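Fold Annotation — chain and its backbone

Fields — amino acid sequence, structure tokens

___
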Amino acid sequence: MVVVPDVDYSLLVPKELRSHAWVLTHNLFSVIRIDGRGALSSEILRKLLGRNSAAIMQKFEGTLIELERDYSAGYHCRFYRFVPGFTRFCCKTITDPLLVRAWFRNTVNRKQPIHRCLDQILADDKLEFDSDGANEHLDRLTSHEFLALDKSCSMENYVAGVRQSIARAGNMRSLFEVQRMSLSTVDEFGHRYHTPLTSLPKRYRGYFRWSGEPLVNVDIRNSQPLFLCLAFVKAGGEIKDDWKRYKDLCERGCLYESLNWSNIDRAEFKERFFEEVLFSKPETVLYKKFAQKFFTEFESVFQFIFDLKNPKPSRQLKGKDREKPHRLLAKHLQRAESQFMFEQVVPSLMAQGIRPVIPIHDSVLTTEEHAPAVENTIRAEFKRVRFKCEVRVESTVEE
């Protein structure tokens, strides 16, 4: 039994497209937001509808869904909404063999039992959000502060997007209990767990309270470079002196500070390090200034990064991985991070009875009382794989 639009597809689409229509509308309903819009990327659409997804979407437009043509720059997907007649949803038992096969073949759902337990925490009465305070904070945003954020969209679109995130964060309990909507998704690319808190900018998470107490963020320092070390060990790479130095810097959480060749701000250096060293295209990486310096100091590390982004033979790759093989490293590191957090750290915290536990990718939101336990658990889980890590505890409330 699943939640599906209460409509008769036979009156709207041809028989050969009926299974596609059912799968599309069900998946759009599962990601729809408080404003009635749902985001579906071209990659997800291809998985749902096949290679001809663009042509099929054109046939459905106006009869099943409407495309938001004024979507903001910076998004990697388009927003859709149901046509005005699609307002009633209900639970149905699907018996049509064609629809059953389409559901099991095309549905994209990577949520595990641990994710559903976390959804219960997000809908708990103890978790409160001061949406009025967050909106007032947003109202005080100046153009100078917005430019400092270095966003790839206009200030108007940024503010509109944040207001939608604030509205969704303030209505989590209603969405979960009354409208029976899922509060989270697990993406296809890095298997990351996305909630209203992950889409909310960091500065507004300070308006969350658990039983009246503010939350703190327990963060793994240099997490992506550290997971690169884990990948190297699993691959059975030869440990050389430059690898030992790189691993030591990652474990002490001072990689960016030690390699800051240009003496720029840490956040700016981290962004350029990711852009030019970790996630740049293999054919252009050696033309990057930071990549050249990194190659000089860590030749074997650089070679491992290059090999991960440029696998041989490339014919084994499919879809976007074949078109853009340089994204393989980002996918590998994000999936390693997700596996570590949701198969080791979060289950251990839940077993200890710690509440709240709200993962934000490579960090965990909790109360100040439980921060030491979360920190010790993260260190213990890294120790199990013979690694160390530096963990930072920081308040979410801006002073």
Observations:
- The CA atoms of residues 150 and 274 lie 16 Å apart.
